[in-house]
Design a protein that fits this description.
Elements (H helix, E strand, L loop, with lengths): L2 H14 L9 E6 L4 E8 L1 H16 L14 H7 L1 H23 L23 E8 L13 E6 L4 H13 L3 E5 L8 E10 L2 E12 L3 E3 L4 E3 L1 H5 L7 E7 L13 E15 L5 H6 L5 H32 L9 H21 L4 H13 L1 H21 L6 H15 L3 H10 L2 H20 L2 E6 L8 E3 L24
Parallel strand pairs: 4-12, 8-13
Antiparallel strand pairs: 1-2, 2-3, 5-11, 6-7, 6-11, 8-9, 10-11
Helix pairs in contact: 2-4, 5-8, 9-10, 9-11, 9-14, 11-14
Length: 489
């Protein structure tokens, strides 16, 4: 084919793909707060008639009616015989076309699907079509000055005491539990059946729950302080009771702040027998010798120290750039995004090499304050996202691949398995957003002024975690349910 002919064909294709004529929409947009707008849309009768003609034309080309050839059915008969189908098709076309044009012509950045009662809408046989809806949008705000801020930076090496504490905690996760007739003591496990009651009415009952005697027991919606003291001296058959208060962030609104009686019936007391650090155990940990294992653990401690330092630095950056973010976020939006905020926190801890037990404890802590922590996380996201957009910062595939490689190195788990697990749980998207925001924070830090201060000691794990909420209605734990050999729930 000659170049002239090719050009003629391309011209014909371009002409056939001309943009559909715009509708003469009448749109009114009213603010309902910093993150919500009320939108009123009127579609003129003339535009509806055009869409109705298109819908009838499409139907006429394929409709089969006895006594008529395909394509020859009178329009009046089509409208009568297929009234329900035509009305539904016209409504869909009108809504899709008007919403698309609305998005193109107005400065609206929705962060969730608009709330439209589609079933309650009907296209009139004559006259204009009107519909209204509320939509949650990105807040409109001025960015603060993020160039040259002053940040305090923790410095100092980890101590041998910190290393030994981490080593003991790591080995405990591979310890064997042995049933004993002895009374329970700090560090032991108790296997319990638990009954929760509120004002004499049973709220929940769970059986066969195993917890280590630590100072705190975290449920997803409450905290029991002094758990080790409560259960100290208990034996099989003993009953211990305590009162806990439901978190003010609980999704079960009527139970917020209410006091619940927890009744623990001990089924077994289990003592911990630490693993023998022999050649077999070292090989299981992908280490040749005990010295090599200690080197690996020192590396893990270093990563946790870096994580803590990074979180402290990040916290300061975020506090400074969100200090003026005094716009309110609707609770519906906060609830929708609460799982995303939690997923990202879990990802960061996984990347830093924290144990499953540590991550579970942090998950429960976040869930107890889920609304407030998510509200702050959303404000940080909007500010960092705007900075990333302004500075043209993007997360590349190479960034994701590099992060997965690092997670694989730290957990000794194949990249393929990590990627599959993150994809299955929907956390790949969280990882991408997290990395983009991290690059935005790094961009700010490149221009920051630092002042070194002594490093705080690594936080110790002093809480056991229950993987359920007392009042129910909570999302299942995001931690993988697989009970890996040697790991305790």
């Amino acid at each position: 084919m000659s170049s002239e002919a090719e050009q003629a064909v391309e011209t014909e294709v371009e002409e056939s793909e001309e943009v559909a004529p715009r509708m003469a929409l009448r749109v009114e947009i009213r603010d309902l707060g910093s993150c919500r707008k009320h939108v009123s849309v009127t579609v003129p009768e003339a535009d509806i008639a055009t869409i109705r003609d298109e819908a009838l034309g499409e139907l006429a080309e394929k409709a089969q009616v006895p006594g008529f050839r395909v394509g020859k059915v009178p329009r009046g008969l089509l409208e009568k015989r297929f009234k329900t189908e035509i009305s539904a098709d016209i409504k869909q076309k009108v809504l899709l076309a008007s919403l698309e044009q609305l998005s193109d012509e107005n400065d609206i950045e929705p962060i969730s699907e608009p709330k439209i009662d589609v079933e309650g809408l009907d296209i009139p046989d004559s006259g204009d079509f009107h519909y209204e809806f509320d939509v949650e949008v990105r807040p409109d705000f001025e960015l603060p000055d993020y160039a040259g801020i002053t940040i305090t930076r923790s410095s100092g090496e980890t101590t041998d005491e910190e290393f030994q504490a981490f080593r003991t905690q790591f080995l405990t996760s591979y310890a064997e539990r042995l049933t004993t007739d002895d009374a329970a003591a700090a560090g032991d496990y108790v296997l319990c059946d638990i009954t929760f009651t509120h004002e004499g009415r049973q709220v929940r009952e769970v059986r066969g729950q195993s917890f280590r005697l630590l100072p705190q027991l975290n449920f997803q919606d409450a905290v029991l302080n002094g758990f080790d003291s409560l259960m100290a001296g208990a034996k099989a058959g003993d009953i211990r009771e305590a009162t806990v208060q439901i978190s003010l962030q609980s999704p079960v609104v009527e139970m917020r702040g209410e006091k619940i009686m927890a009744r623990f019936e001990v089924q077994e007391v289990q003592q911990v027998r630490m693993p023998t650090i022999d050649k077999e155990f070292c090989e299981r940990m992908s280490a040749d010798t005990e010295e090599a294992l200690d080197d690996m653990l020192r590396g893990a401690v270093a990563r946790q120290t870096e994580y803590q330092q990074r979180q402290e630095t990040r916290r300061q950056v975020l506090d400074k750039i969100t200090a003026s973010a005094n716009w309110e976020l609707p609770e519906t939006l906060v609830r929708q995004q609460s799982e995303n905020a939690l997923r990202r926190e879990i990802l960061e801890m996984s990347q830093a090499g924290f144990t499953r037990e540590q991550i579970m404890a942090r998950e429960n802590q976040i869930r107890q304050d889920v609304l407030e922590t998510t509200r702050q996380a959303l404000k940080e996201h909007f500010v960092l996202d705007k900075i990333a957009t302004l500075e043209e910062i993007e997360c590349e595939q190479s960034d994701i691949d590099r992060e997965l490689q690092m997670m694989s190195f730290q957990s000794n788990e194949p990249v393929r398995r990590i990627r599959a697990r993150l994809a299955k749980s929907g956390m790949i998207e969280n990882l991408e957003a997290q990395l983009r925001e991290r690059k935005a924070v790094d961009f700010i830090l490149e221009k920051a002024t630092f002042r070194d201060v002594p490093r705080k000691a690594l936080e110790k794990t002093d809480s056991a975690s229950a993987r359920f909420a007392i009042c129910g209605n909570m999302t299942t734990s995001l931690i993988d349910d697989t009970d890996d050999e040697g790991e305790s729930e």
